Amino acid sequence: MRIVADENIPLAEAFFGEHGELVRLPGREMSREQVRDADILLVRSVTRVDAELLAGSRVRFVGTATIGCDHVDQQWLADQGIGFASAPGCNADSVGDYVISTLLLFGEQDGVALTDRVVGIVGAGNVGGRLVERLRALGIRCLICDPPRAEQEGGEGFTDLDSLIAQADVVSIHTPLIRDGDHPTQHLLGERHIEALRTDQILISAGRGDCVDSRALKARLARDPDLRVVLDVWENEPDIDEALYRQVAIATPHIAGYSLDGKLRGTEMLYQAMSRHFGLPLRKRLGQLKPENWLRRIAVSRRAPPQEALLLCARTCYDVRRDALLFERYRRQYGMEKGFDLMRREYPTRREFSTLRVELKHSAGAVREVLESAGFAIRAPRKS
C-alpha cells in the first residue's frame, strides 16, 4: 500500500511503515496529484479532505490525528465507501495543561489563588469535559455550557452561555466548529457575548478559531485593552489578523494540544482504526515506541506550600509564556503566515504533566493531593 501522511504526525513510520511505502508531505500543501495513488491518507487539521482532494484517487482510508473533524467531509467519504477515523480525546490533557498554565500565570500576576476564580467551560466534550474533571479536582468551581450534552443528559449541571459569562471569572472555549444544525458554533461567541464580557474577566479560546468573532473581539479590545484574552486558535489560520494578535494577552499558533504525548496517542489511534478497517493484526503499541521524558522526576518536600509546588511542577513541564515568546520570534523572522506554520512544524518537544514523576517525602498529604489532581504522577517514598 501507499500511505501519504502529514509531516507533523509523529511515529508514522514506526506504526505504518510495515504496510507499504510512506510519503510525508506538508499538510497545508497536499494536492490531488500527490494523493491520487495513495491507499491511505493521514492528515491533521490543516488539510481539507473532500471531493476536490480525493475524487478519482484510490484512497480507501482517511485518518485525521485530531479531535476536530470539521476539515473532513465525512458524508462524501461515506458515500464513496472510504473508511474514516479521527482521534477523539488524544490531546485532551495537553489542552488542559495549556489552560492550567494560563490560569497559574494570571493567578501569579494578580495574587489570586486558583480556587478563588470561577471557570466557565464552553463545550464539555473530550477536551472540555476532561478539563472540568481536572479543575474540579483542584477545588476550582466550574460552570459548564454544552447545549447538546444538556439535551441528552438533562439540564442539571449545565448553564446557558449568557449566565456563564455573567458568573464566571474565566471563560474557556473548547467547542468543535459546527456550521449548521441545531447547535452551530461558528461565531458562538459573537458581538453580543463579547460585549457582555467584563474587563476583569479572562477569555481563553483553544477549540476552533471560527467559534469566536474576531472582528467583534478586536473592536472590543480596541476600547478595553485591559480585557485579557488568550488565543491559541484564530480565524483564517495561518493568515491571522495581526492587529488582533497585538491586542491579546497571550497569542499562540494552534499548539495547545501539540504535546508529543497527545500527538503520539493520535497516531496510535489511527493505526488501530486502519488495522481494523483492513482486517490487519495489531502488532504495535505506543508503550513500545514512546520515548522517555528527558526530565524523569522531581523531588518535592512535604513542607512545600501546595500551590508553590504546583506552580513549580507545572512550569517545569510547560509554561505558556515560552510558546507566546517563540511565536513572536517566528512572526518577526518569517512573517505571520509563514511563521505560524513553521513554528508548528518545528515545535519543540513538549511533554504532558503526567510524564513528570514527582517524588514526595513521607505522606505530603496536601501537596500530593494538589499535584495528583493537576495530573502529575506521584512517586511514593520507599518503605524502609
Automatic annotation (TrEMBL):
Keywords: Cytoplasm, NAD, Oxidoreductase, Pyridoxine biosynthesis. It catalyses: 4-phospho-D-erythronate + NAD(+) = (R)-3-hydroxy-2-oxo-4-phosphooxybutanoate + NADH + H(+). GO terms for biological process: 'de novo' pyridoxal 5'-phosphate biosynthetic process; pyridoxine biosynthetic process. It holds the Pfam family DUF3410. NAD(+) binds at residues 146, 175, 232, 257. Residues 291-364 form the Erythronate-4-phosphate dehydrogenase dimerisation domain. It is found in: Cytoplasm. The keyword Oxidoreductase applies. Transmembrane segments: none annotated. The active site is at residues 208, 237, 254. Substrate binds at residues 45, 66, 258. GO terms for cellular component: cytosol. Its main location: cytoplasm. Residues 110-256 form the D-isomer specific 2-hydroxyacid dehydrogenase NAD-binding domain. Pathway: Cofactor biosynthesis; pyridoxine 5'-phosphate biosynthesis; pyridoxine 5'-phosphate from D-erythrose 4-phosphate: step 2/5. It is an enzyme of class 1 (oxidoreductase). One of its GO terms (molecular function) is protein dimerization activity. Its EC number is 1.1.1.290. Belongs to the D-isomer specific 2-hydroxyacid dehydrogenase family. PdxB subfamily. Catalyzes the oxidation of erythronate-4-phosphate to 3-hydroxy-2-oxo-4-phosphonooxybutanoate. Homodimer. This is Erythronate-4-phosphate dehydrogenase. It comes from Kushneria avicenniae. The lineage of its organism: Bacteria, Pseudomonadati, Pseudomonadota, Gammaproteobacteria, Oceanospirillales.
